[in-house]
Amino acid sequence: MLKRMGTFAVLACLIFASWSVAAPGRAVALDPFTGYLMAHFTGETANGEQLYLAHSKDGLHWTDLNGSAPVLLSTVGTRGVRDPAIVRSPAGDRYWIIATDLRIASGTSWGDASSRGSTSLVVWESRDLVTWSAPWLINVAGGISGAGDAWAPEAIWNPATNDYVVYWATNSLRNGVTKHRIFYVRTGDFRTFTAPQLYLERGSGQGVIDTQIIEVPGSVGGYRYYRASADGQITIEGSNTILGTWTTIGNLSHMGISNGATGGNVVEGPMWAQFNGRNEWNLWLDQYATGRGYLPISSTNLGSTQNFRTRTDYSLGTDRKRHGSILNLTAAEETRVLAKWGTKANRLQSYNFQDRYVRHANYDVRIDPNVSPAADAQFRVVPGLADASGSVSFESVNFPGYYLRHYAFDFVLAANDGTSTFAGDATFRQVAGLADASWSSFQSYNYPDRYIRHANYLLKLETITTAQARADATWRVVS
């Protein structure tokens, strides 16, 4: 669909490359938590292996953000991401997303992905949870002999070493056996890191993937940290130190849940989340074998797997949720996230062709009826990039970070390159419709004698002097 990718690929790589935002005024991580943010991917579809977000107020009922479109797109490595994890610094003034560099939808087989796949992870960084850097790769498994992949990464702050432990699964030959094991590195900035070390291995030929650790305040159940891993079962372990000795607590086979070793409800991708304000936890499990999506099981004491119970009082929204992570949100974080991605998507309807809407196609911009996919005609009307107080810009829903802009008085969909020229070209003043004051027209910020209009169904930026042009330059913002 996007044949002009070559023209704008470089711009895509520069999204927020020189971004600068003020850190919150205080350590927001110390504030009470009021909501939840889930990062996930949706599956092996054209855009399914990208970064999606969902929001919840109660930790059980989820609403898809950004109009069910991806929030971040990978422009590095395989140009796809799976298994995203959100990491917050202890001070609450910095965030990272790390993810598997993998795109099965491009035609890669699972065999090739696990034996000849990427050994790097994709990383984004933010100071406010809503403005993200361009992605970069860290080749964490490159130092593992015969490494075939680097899957399902997670990261946790380790006070014992005053840095982050990043851990993931790699398929490699060791002691004559090729299988997935968990390795780790340490890092302070998610750019430089120590040599990879073996972290977790199961006996015989049993592989292990999808390990996730949660820190439990007050060591409820007897341990400060708990980890869940997919290793034929969903095995739960406890420890008081991240890099120390771990004790096996049990698995979920007594609930009819396994990772395949004992059948029943076969799941993967364990994902921890504590309920805000109370000592109760959900372990979300992806029912991938049946395609039913995530199932939460709850516990008030993680020190015994007998304390888990299956829940039915939950809903996951519209999007399919695949292996990800959940971040408890402070009120300030929640406000920023919902202001950025919680608004409903809008469309621009033509005044004189009311069955047609503004849409992007191959990075060109035109008006069409019956737009498919529908997200090509959906935009977030945001404060103007060049004038936030009195103007607007139009950000694509399914290509976040891309905006409608004029270029040589023609319109394109382009990645924000952070320049003042781009900001001016992508900013418009919404005024009373030139053909009908109950509608709207959009006056250029940097060429105020010109307006957005369509001509032969293509969007242009032109001066308006005729009745036909006034009709062509009149629009309605609709949901």
From TrEMBL:
Keyword list, A-Z: Signal
Signal peptide start and end residues: 1-22
Superkingdom of origin: Bacteria
UniProt GO BP: L-arabinose metabolic process
All copies of domain Alpha-L-arabinofuranosidase B arabinose-binding, residue ranges: 347-477
MF (Gene Ontology): alpha-L-arabinofuranosidase activity
SUPFAM superfamilies assigned: AbfB domain (SSF110221), Arabinanase/levansucrase/invertase (SSF75005)
Keyword Amino-acid biosynthesis included in the entry's annotation: no
Matches recorded under CDD domains: beta-trefoil_ABD_ABFB (cd23399), GH43_Bt3655-like (cd08983)
Coiled coil: none
InterPro entries, alphabetized: AbfB_ABD, AbfB_ABD_sf, GH43_arabinanases, Glyco_hydro_beta-prop_sf
Entries under Pfam families matching the protein: AbfB
Protein name: Alpha-L-arabinofuranosidase B arabinose-binding domain-containing protein
